[in-house]
Amino acid sequence: MAPPSTPSGARTDGGAETRDAPSDAAGDGDDAAGASAIDVDGLQLTYADGTEAVRGVDLTVPAGEFFGFLGPNGAGKTTTIKVFATLLLPTSGEARVNGFDVTADPARVRQSIGYMAQETSVDPELTAEENIRFACEAYGVPRGDRDERIDELLDLVDLSDVRDKRAEEFSGGMKKRLDAATALVHRPPLVFLDEPTTGLDPKARNRLWDYFERINDRGTTIFLTTQYLEEADQLCDRLAVILDGDIVSEGSPADLKRRVGGEILEVDLDEDVDPERAASLARETGLFEAGSVEPTEGGLAVTSREARERGTDLLVALRDADVRVIGFNVRSPTLDDVFLSITGENVEVESDTELGGRR
Ligand SMILES: Nc1ncnc2c1ncn2[C@@H]1O[C@H](COP(=O)(O)OP(=O)(O)OP(=O)(O)O)[C@@H](O)[C@H]1O
Question: Of 81, 109, 357, whose CA–CA distance to 225 is shortest?
Fold first, then answer.
């Protein structure tokens, strides 16, 4: 029934693509100077089975930006990144990466980017050090710089102690960390990171974020997808949210949070109280006409510009209706609230492989 799942004319989509990239990531000297790091116009990608994964994305990411690309599972993030990394050909539209057209000039796009895919592409038969050395060779890192670069990257990703161990002995998180190191060996001016820290424990994750911040401070553009919204909030200058292949919201984290429309009043209810009934009562008070009142697990969430000043009135109204409140809190919106208000769902976070639990 289903035809092959790659788009017609697609390049292979195998995972070790950047290893083929020629050398001299940043220093080509012949690129479109001053161009945006990413410039996209009407990008569409329909897979051969008819799935419209990307439906007309317009996007500009200035050089030097730390950009976050968010969206629920299946929204089109990885497909978009793969077009930027020249692993998939767009069905229509244009995308320029570091000034080079992804369709007309894929080799030069590849020279100018680093790409850390969701699936790790480390070679299990090689040691940690050999994996990085291999990447140095593939990317043409000057011979004299390699030892220092390898030491720096092993230290960065906390693998110095196991540099001589084969990657097949590593945990999933250790492989991720090694993969991050190999994507950065050639110090590319633009790095695509597709969920680079999923599965890492908080310490390893923070270490990587520190490094990403450091390379961004040095001028490297970062295009990141992540499940950890508080990290997107902390790191990204600007974000776009993609939903069903369309960008539905774009702006700085503060802009997006402002668009949620006020503060959030969270009310915890006694377990005997039905949150749906309490939400109906809260709506009937008419206190938050410009906002929203939603039942949550065990309580209510009111999003409103009047959440703070009218919160007490709501608590009194609930008490008068014999609805037992056991706690409440008014807070500013987070990116989780942004995500929820845009997509109608909470972001799903996979278990940490190294911790065996959620963060
Ligand atoms: N090779 C393929 N053939 C057909 N459909 C595909 C293929 N790869 C992805 N899709 C579909 O395209 C849509 C976008 O998928 P994509 O992987 O780009 O989403 P995503 O936002 O990166 O999701 P996730 O966060 O789960 O990685 C989904 O409906 C997905 O099922």
Answer: 81
